[in-house]
Design a protein that fits this description.
InterPro entries: Myo-inos-1-P_Synthase, Myo-inos-1-P_Synthase_GAPDH, NAD(P)-bd_dom_sf
CATH superfamily of the largest domain: NAD(P)-binding Rossmann-like Domain
Strand content: 15-25%
CATH class of the largest domain: Alpha Beta
Order of helices and strands: EEHEEHHHEHEHHHEHEHEHHEEEHEH
Family: Belongs to the myo-inositol 1-phosphate synthase family.
Strand order of the largest sheet: 5-4-2-6-7-8-13
CATH topology of the largest domain: Rossmann fold
Shape: globular
Number of helices: 14
Pfam family, one: NAD_binding_5
Distance between the termini: 27 Å
Number of domains: 2
Helix content: 40-55%
Organism: Aquipuribacter nitratireducens
Structural class: alpha/beta
CATH architecture of the largest domain: 3-Layer(aba) Sandwich
Radius of gyration: 21 Å
Domain Myo-inositol-1-phosphate synthase GAPDH-like: 234-338
């Protein structure tokens, strides 16, 4: 992709106090985002990895990173400084940044809420919405964007008839609450609270939260934009570049085998086969959509504790060319999950805040560039998604009616 696009002179940023409420605020991705934002603002790190800082996105005049305030909630009580020290020991973030920005990390802890134990789901959701409103007010925010960067959760059990009925509409959920049931999956509680607080939402995980029918309807009624789902940071990113090559060169993909090993909290969560179903479904969808049919080959995700925040993806592709010649492609991707994901979180907060200011509501398919399962779009090829993103930039710049 060529970013050497010349644009007419426009402000690259604008003043818009934007809150980023992180669900799973003390996890690796969130901690890296908090540290990274502080480092860039302090001039201790450059904008490498931040799509929102590319010249091609300048016409959108996104909210400045200086105006982004990070907060959120988590059940974990370990503060940002200690969490960042662990990440530094694993080679995820530079140790000198943790030392230099220790005071900023400590200050950021003040905006992380540890929810009180509350068995009643309606009260949990209400308390979370109140915390979001309080965050909005204390920091005099213009916009609030809630980003789910928590551990992947299992898909909904669609064979549970009572659960399906309870989740059919907002009214059905409230009726279930009146009856003493807690129908919302944990990932949906935060999204429901976000919509109640008037916030935009980023589904950075494949958890079912935003896709629950009642929650989706609540979002439509709230009139806010949202984007998702499941951040595209590693193996699927490569597939969305390589798979179109085979299609456009009329080469037949015979098989595509993918073997993933990772550590960290996400790897531990995905060690549960039920939870892993959400992730493998989104990883498989891109290849099938691009090739136009199911492609044989196993797709494994395995937890290896000592990898920490690092992940390795090994792929073997069998394909057939002219006159039936059989060929192969093998590649290995090794990356740090948090260092890949954290800048995208900051990008999406800025982009979605700008979409809200422009009056967009509902799913924003042009942000599919960032996701494995782009809601509102069937396009998975990265180059096409990039052009759609630039179209959104034009819209935000006021170039379209």
């Amino acid at each position: 992709m060529d970013d050497a696009v010349t644009n007419s002179p426009v402000p690259s940023v604008r003043s818009c106090r934007t809150g980023a409420w992180l669900v799973g605020a003390r996890g690796s991705v969130a901690t890296t985002a908090v540290l990274g934002a502080a480092a860039v603002r302090a001039g201790l790190a450059g904008p490498v990895g931040l799509v929102s800082e590319l010249p091609s996105l300048a016409p959108a005049a996104l909210p400045s990173l200086e105006d982004v305030v990070l907060g959120g909630h988590d059940v974990v009580v370990t503060g940002y400084r200690k969490r960042a020290e662990v990440l530094a020991a694993q080679g995820v973030v530079p140790r000198d940044l943790v030392v230099a920005l220790g005071a900023e990390l400590d200050a950021a802890d003040a905006d992380v809420v540890v929810p009180a134990a509350e068995p009643d789901q309606r009260r949990r959701v209400a308390a979370l919405a109140a915390a979001m409103r309080d965050f909005h007010g204390r920091h005099d925010l213009d916009r609030l964007v809630v980003v789910d960067v928590s551990s992947t959760q299992p898909p909904l059990d669609t064979d549970d008839a009572e659960l399906v009925t309870d989740l059919a509409s907002p009214e059905a959920v409230r009726a279930a609450w009146d009856a003493g049931r807690s129908p919302l999956p944990a990932s949906a509680e935060a999204v429901w609270a976000a919509y109640e607080a008037g916030a935009a939402v980023v589904a950075f995980t494949p958890s079912p939260g935003v896709g629950v029918p009642a929650v989706a309807e609540l979002g439509r009624r709230a009139g806010v934009p949202w984007a998702g789902a499941d951040g595209k940071t590693g193996e699927t990113l490569l597939k969305s570049v390589l798979a179109p090559m085979f299609v456009q060169r009329a080469l037949h993909v015979d098989s595509w085998s993918s073997f993933n090993i990772l550590g960290g909290g996400d790897g531990q969560a995905l060690a549960d086969p039920v939870a892993a179903r959400s992730k493998t479904a989104t990883k498989a969808a891109a290849l099938e959509a691009i090739v136009g049919r199911p492609v044989p080959g196993p797709l494994h995700i395995d937890y290896v504790a000592d990898l920490g925040d690092w992940k390795t993806a090994m792929n073997h592709v069998g394909f057939t060319g002219f006159l039936g010649t059989r060929m192969q492609l093998q590649f290995t991707w090794q990356g740090c999950d948090s260092a890949l994901a954290a800048p995208l979180v900051l990008d999406l907060v800025r982009l979605l805040a700008a979409c809200a200011d422009a009056g967009r509501s509902g799913a924003v398919p042009e942000l599919g560039f960032f996701f494995k399962d782009p809601v509102g779009s069937h396009e998975h090829a990265l180059a096409e998604q990039w052009h759609a993103l630039l179209g959104l930039v034009d819209e935000l710049a006021g170039r379209r009616p």
